[in-house]
Amino acid sequence: MAVIDIELEAMVLAAMLDNSDNLLDGLADLTADCFYEGLHQQIFKTIVQMNEAGKIINPQTVYTELQPLVKGRGTSWMLDSCQYVGTFQHGLGKLKELAASRRAVGAAEKAIHDLTAAHRPLEEVLVELEDKVFALAMSTEQEMIVTPKAQAERIIDTVAAMMDDQTRRKSCIYTTFSRLNLKTGGYEAGDLVIVSGPTGGGKTAFAMNQIRDIAITQKLPVLYINTEMSEKQLDIRLASILSKDWGVNNQTLRSGAITQAQFTNLACELDRVYQSQLYSVTIHDLTIPKMLSVIKRFTRRHKIRAVAIDYIGRMELAAGSATDSRDEWKLLTNAARKLKTIAQQQNLVVFMLSQVDSAGKLALAKYMEHEADLHLHIRPITAEEQTNMLAAMEPYWNHVVSIEKGRSSPRGSIPVRFVGEKLLFLTEAAEAEKHALMTGATLTLAPEAKPKARRRI
Fold first, then answer.
1. What percentage of the chain exceeds 70 in pLDDT?
2. Which residues pair with 192 in a beta bridge?
3. Which partner from 39, 106, 142, 320 sits 20 to 30 angstroms from 365, CA to CA?
């Protein structure tokens, strides 16, 4: 395919000089690298400079500015090309397409050179090439200025779409955790959701239960990026969550202490995984370029709706970087910013799991919360909360999902039950109480902590 059209370049420039509307459209849509021929690049740059200086732009003034570069050519050549321009907008689009094609060819040629002549590692070259292709694809999108009339019409369309359940579910993910849906309004496409908690505090169990619900129960395509566990550990965790047998849990699976009957039943349950849309990848040496590359690749191939990164604290600094807390702060904040951008560009829900420090705050990078649309913090209930729950005759909750930030939802908290080694996340009172009674969990406090009156609310 030809990637150069010198005649088209001349026609577009001539049309810009011949018509003020074309001039404004060309200045808004084109850049100098949209032109291949050196003289055409210089003419366009001159037009831009003259426009910024507030000068009159026509064939004669541009010809004067370009002296002695075009000396002896006159001005007629600039306007003669106009007769070849059919639709100026078509010419603009074609010129931009040719420029994008040249950049794509250049990226491919560089990749070939890096692999053959420079002998760079294949993975490194592929990551760089994917980034260039993605940036190139995004650069071809048109950014439109919205008029007041269009804005009003769009608001009506948006609100009407939100009122239609089928339409809303195309852009918003609801889980079967009804309390969570009620508090957050669901996970919107383009959302960056931070899930924080201390080590062993339940953030991975929470995220995996969300992924199980979205990918296996609802069969929406989800990508789980595992940085912390081995593949074996990931398999055991998933098996624990998926099995309906309370005797099949993280502990019994790790020790191999399940019966043949339990194994057979688990194998039947795993048919749900086979029929699901759960994709996972294990990357222990995660970097920002590699993370973005994986997300882009899976999104293109499998139309991913949600991504979970477990967890962001495993992100590696670039080779040769210093390793003090300031570098880690910048790294995590930059990672959050990149994830928010790709969530918006690809219409994804991105779950970013993050550690908290000893004070219960986001470790190292509090500012990454500014990028988030929703920040969910997982923590055990306090003694005061436990007393209040006993008073309400709901002593079966053992953790709280705290909404620390929500662009579309108020701050608040949701009592939940984490089922220990089973790694399940329960939000419905009936199932939480049933499990607590079944496992013999203590449903009362010490006598001195009991309230005088007990009532159900």
1. 83
2. 350
3. 320
